[in-house]
Amino acid sequence: MDQIKIGRFVAETRRAKGLTQRQLADQLSISDKTISKWETGKGLPDVSLMLPLCQALDITVNDLLTGARVSASDYQQKAEENMMDLIKENQENKKRFALSMVCAAITVIAVVALVFLASYLDLPVPARVAVLALAVATAVAGIGAAAVLEAQAGYYECPACHELFVPTLGEYVRGYHTLTKRRLTCPHCGKTGMCRHKIVR
């Protein structure tokens, strides 16, 4: 889906209805920053907000996901294309998440093997240091690659406003986390909390 095109369409439709970002945000019980993010193509409405947004703008969900008003003759085709886009996006997120888990597992195995070699083999000191340095480099590279893949796999849901967002890599790395949640600052409402990781919309 073309987020820029959808954002422009939301902005044009909102203006045509004579609404400000603040007025539309009030109707949806969200912040005007969230509307701004949508309109600038930096995010898409959460699934739970799509119907209320469409009702406020007097458009269909199909219009919204297409980024233009869809004629009756094209409606079925566009609906199928939009559904396929969502399915494809969800599949890509699942693949990234699976790859991040595989990458993390391989990294752990490789680091343990290198540390074992450095500890139990009769090696000269320079060689032992080199193997340990390789273990550290492997750990850093593997964890970094796994983090990049996981950060791009899906979205995080803000516990305050329930908006979905993708954190920057810096925010992702710095955030304290559990298995399913990460402490992040929501770009929509500005609140910091334990955001749940969601692989699919």
Question: What does the secondary structure layout of this molecule look like, with pairings?
Answer:
Blueprint: H1 3-16, H2 21-28, H3 32-39, H4 47-57, H5 61-66, H6 75-120, H7 125-152, E1 155-157, E2 164-165, H8 169-174, E3 181-185, E4 192-198
Antiparallel strand pairs: 1-2, 1-4, 3-4
Helix pairs in contact: 2-3, 6-7
Question: How is this structure best summarized?
Answer:
This protein is α+β, with helices and mostly antiparallel strands and 201 residues long. Helix content is 63%, strand content 8%.
Architecture overview:
- The chain has a four-stranded antiparallel beta sheet, with no helix packed on it.
- The chain contains eight helices and four strands; from the N terminus they run αααααααββαββ.
- It folds into three domains: 3-70, lambda repressor-like DNA-binding domains (434 Repressor (Amino-terminal Domain), Orthogonal Bundle); 77-152; 155-198, no CATH class.
- Helix 2 (21-28) crosses helix 3 (32-39) and helix 6 (75-120) packs antiparallel against helix 7 (125-152).
- The chain has 201 residues and is α+β, with helices and mostly antiparallel strands.
